[in-house]
Write a structure and sequence with these properties.
Helicase, Ruva Protein, domain 3, five-stranded mixed sheet, four-stranded antiparallel sheet, binds zinc ion, 11 strands, 5 helices
Amino acid sequence: MPELPEVESMKLQLAKFLKGHKITSVVVNNRTTFQGDEKNIIGGKVIGTRRFGKVSVIDLDNGYSILTHVKLTGQYIYRGANLPNPRSLSPKVTGGIPGPHTLVIFKLDNKGILYYNDVRRFGWIKITKSEEVKTNSFIGKLGPEPPVVQDFTGQKLTLELFKQILSKTSRPIKIVLMDQEKMGGVGNIYANDALWLAGIDPRRKAKSIEGKAAEELYKAVLTVLKAGLKYGGASELAFVTPDGEEGEYQNHTLAYGHEGELCSRCKKAKFEKYFLGGRGTYVCPVCQK
Ligand SMILES: [Zn+2]
């Protein structure tokens, strides 16, 4: 599932392509995905984009906002005047645009078109009053965010706060890192990589990680998220950026996806894979304690 770096990359491109343009019509092919009344956004001009954890927000000048959680396979793809000579569409855009998996189409005043594709259909788009975005039933519950982007709009996850969150639970540390109500934006790929970088066993009780170890883990979370941002996110499953291209972090992961390969740090053991909380977990049995 796209995590902070993926959704941030998506948010930045949406701003680049949509800002200053008016939505002239909306085609809704799936009412489960699209929640709310499209009449409220038609005629609205895009004034900016925001991100809260894994949710992206497109703000309009008429007091309404478009919230999107792409979940596993949702994709925004833009075509039009603000993207001259686009490169060929990533093969991850199943069915093309528009295609059988195009659930919503936003048309803009400069002949720009924003498609929302979603093969698995777990994602959602919700029309909300802009003043109610922060108290939205999903966004309102998000925990503080690791401060890795300058314009982050949520609460800031400081080292002190991070230590406090860990000290209050006996759940496995990896599960806590991925719990969006504890901290926003970290999912499976970056949790795996951060734990390997910090040399911590994903199954360890969160509250056993204190002092220097907690600090190392906090720094590791920031480091891997920054690497994800630098590479435009990871296009592991279905993630594509709105230009229709892929991120590159999947080629730079530290532990994620490396089962059977020799650990690049100790060069003594091979990465093992098991499932923790139903998610693929990759560890070096020598480095991670
Ligand atoms: Zn190792």
